[in-house]
């Protein structure tokens, strides 16, 4: 069985660097998602451009501070030992749209290696359309993503089972997707 996984906010948990960013910008830490709190506060201040630059830092050099979500490593090892192939398929540009010109692909690959995540292959796509096409070309039987718009996209492969990773339980489930708030729940949903 081939299993596809998104990287950012699905495998990689950015809570630690985001909490630090929130403190630096005077944003109160919410119980749920510091990324949403920081983004919304900066937008409310009219600082959308600052948020765009911060994303380049977060998915670039600050990615080294991210940790795999609890249970992700064990789940991947279980799947691999059961004969599954695991592919990371992520939508990220090569360089940030604004700010310093980091190689976001290099940071992602380094993080996966340094985190010791056992995967079969890594595909970093420049657009959502390319990401969805890659999921289709890999013939993923299951795909896990934190973004409903990927799973609900009209071109998303019909034969691929959709699992929305939603640790904050903040999204509605649509488009035939199942929802999981933890990696333990994902492991229970994807029995091999």
Task: Give a description of the structure.
It is a single chain. The protein has 192 residues and is α/β, with parallel strands linked by helices. It is built from eight helices and eight strands; from the N terminus they run ββαααβαβαβαβαββα. β4, α5 (104-115) and β5 form a beta-alpha-beta unit.
Question: Helix count?
Answer: 8
What is the CATH architecture descriptor of the largest domain? 3-Layer(aba) Sandwich
What name does CATH use for the topology of the largest domain? Answer: Rossmann fold
Q: At the fourth CATH level, what is the homologous superfamily of the largest domain?
A: HAD superfamily/HAD-like
Percent in strands: 15-25%
List the helices and strands in order.
EEHHHEHEHEHEHEEH
* Radius of gyration over C-alpha positions, nearest whole angstrom: 16 Å
Structural class: alpha/beta
**Measured distance between first and last alpha carbons:** 8 Å
Low-confidence spans: pLDDT under 50, at least 5 residues? Answer: none
Oligomer state of the chains in this structure:
single chain
- Round the mean pLDDT to the nearest integer and report it: 93
Q: Tell me the total number of β-strands.
A: 8
| Portion in helices | 25-40%
How many discrete structural domains? 2
